[in-house]
Amino acid sequence: MEQRPFGSTGISVSALGFGCGAVGGLLVRGDADEQRRAVSRALDAGITYFDTAAQYGDGRSEEHLGRVMRELGAWSRVVVGTKVRLGPQDLSSPETAIRASLEASLRRLGRRDVEVFHLHNPIGLTRSDADSLDMATALGSVARGLEAARQAGLARHIGFTGLGDSAALREVVRAEPYETVQAYFNVLNPSAGFTGHSGGQQDFEGLIDTAALAGRGVIVIRVLAAGAAAAEPVRAPNAGDPGRGLVSGGSYAADLERASRLRDLAVELGLEGPVELALRFGLSKPGVSTVLVGYSSLTHLEDAIRYAERGPLTTDAISRVLELVPGSGFRVNPTPINAERGTRNPEPGT
Fold first, then answer.
1. Which domains does the chain have, with CATH numbers?
2. What is the pLDDT of residues 13-29, one digit of tens each?
3. Is residue 223 a contact partner of residue 292, using CB atoms and an 8 Å limit?
4. What does the CA dihedral 249, 229, 277, 55 come to, rounded to 10 degrees?
5. CA distances from 349 to 24, 175, 335, 336 (A)
6. pLDDT digits (tens, 9 = 90+) for 85-97
7. CA 282 to chain centre
8. I need a surface site. Which of 129, 137, 219, 247 has the fewest CB within 10 A?
């Protein structure tokens, strides 16, 4: 498995990550034996980044991940990220709430610290609802609370989830103490990597490029659009409800309908199907450190490993994907990529 720099953190992470969330569901509601087999297989394949959160299954994801890692004796082999989501009641004393949340996560994981600790609230220029934070708060009292957790030795690096107002996200990603960002990026809305190509949804205005220029580690989330990119209406038994769309103008039903166009394109490109197309598209964007997939079963993991090993898509394939997404006519830099392995061909004489 390819290992990539995690921004300027000094850490390397696997190009393919292991999402432990409720939408995929394996680490929340899966069978304990299958959880162990899947994590063991991921480690054998070279997957090193594992993503969880206190909110996933009301802590069950962290508990299950901690149990499996202890059983396998594997904590020293991985990078783990978890998250805090602050409610309105927490904003009177963010530092206290942040520390309490992280300490509870560490107890569930059975660890003294985590490599990455993410703020999990949407961020806006102003506060729009109970779940969101305004940019000034995210850069002020909340940032100080996150930094205090790091100074206390409970987390090594600080990041945030890149949802909310696009202009606010660009400002936060450039600011301290944030070192990593979780970017919403997929074949149905690739605007975080290709400005203007939003498919009628929120335009993230090249957030990945902004993050990479600032030296931030980039974690791609929802690369399969909560499963919609598979273009299959029937969800796996462990899969959770995709819920309301994470981005404005989007919904799971609309994504599923639009994803049907990916089947034909995947066939034309000689791929196994739309899931391979979606995953390798996520891996193709320069600046991306790791792409999270939320697995529902060991079979899903095996598929993802196989696709990731084939590397990025060709630039022609990327252009074909963007042609399916209404946008600004953005053109991909035509650096040639080997179609079989996805490696960039060297210039003549180099």
1. 3-323 (3.20.20.100)
2. 999 999 999 999 999 99
3. yes
4. 90
5. 46, 41, 16, 15
6. 999 999 999 999 9
7. 10
8. 129
